[in-house]
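Page 47, continued from p. 46.
Same chain as before, 389 aa.
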Amino acid sequence: MNIEQIRLDTLGCEDKLFLNSAGAALPPKSVTQIMLDYQAQEELMGGYELEALKATDISLFYTEMATLLNCLPHNIAYAYSATDAYNKALSAIPFRAGDCILTSDDDYISNQLAFLSLQKRFQIEIVRASNLPSGELDLADFEDLILRKKPVLVAITHVPTNSGLVQQAEEVGKLCAKYDVWYLLDACQSVGQMLVDVQAIQCDFLNATGRKFLRGPRATGFLYVSDKALAANLEPLFIDRKGATWTGFDEYTIQASAKRFESQEISASLLGLAEAIRYVNTIGIKNIEARNQELASKLRSNLALIPSLELLDKGSKLCNIITFRLTDKKLEEVVNHLKNNKVNFAVSLKNYAIIDFTKKQVDWAIRFSPHYYNTFDEIDRVAEIVAGI
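Result:
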């Protein structure tokens, strides 16, 4: 991995300590350039005309994403955000009143809200599996709940937004395959920072955003749909004209591929996301994961040496999201000090992860999320800055 070249490609990394890739990572300059070029051409040609001209370039999104996830292009649908993709997948599950969703305490806030909305409107039962003392899912309890509750859907978040925990996605997939349960995995924080193989995970749906560790533009995302789900004719509740053909007064035929989950509108953002994924594939996701593990391990070790600093992440496997608090400081003090020292970071509040933070007995946490374009010198410098608060 040529870190010097990667940093030359990343124009925003020189004048700050950027540690907010779990929020919106710095894109390679090629991502921005391809979007600017497309927008300039659209201004001259018109949107539909340029879309037809760029059909081959647009198709690269599907092939590059399929390469990254170890699937085929027909399993991929473009989306406007991770939540857009997630809700379309959720709407495809044929719920009936009294059905059960099996999930976790650590699922993303928007997913929890979607479950509660289903509960409110359709009397869906929400069951949350227990965690082990180490932080990750208790798989014995998880299997017992599958047997007792017979959920229609298992939905978990691979990496929570508020924690460095990595859930056992493959082990959950084995249980879902064993008991024939639909499996939806939110991989918003894992795709782009670590290897995510949908064949090994055995999920039926997987969603993520473009703006986080993939380093793509905002307002982009995608949905993976398994061959099993496609063959079962699962489709979103509200289907767009791109996803189906109107064949009669009261009839339509859905797309054979995952594009049944897409909407008609595309923009320069799609090409930007395709370029971001190509960039990841060129470097190699295994190389990215290895470097990320080194950066995260060093940062945790450095922070652990600071008196009154409490690292909050739990789990046998941790990733590039590092959360902590300073027990003798107010949030405002910490935030102002980091901003004054040109550190980019995020704050996680209790209402973002109300179950997890209640168990941890905290109201806030600082979230650092380095990525492979960060240097080890930067990791040392930010620890010194935190120590100086």
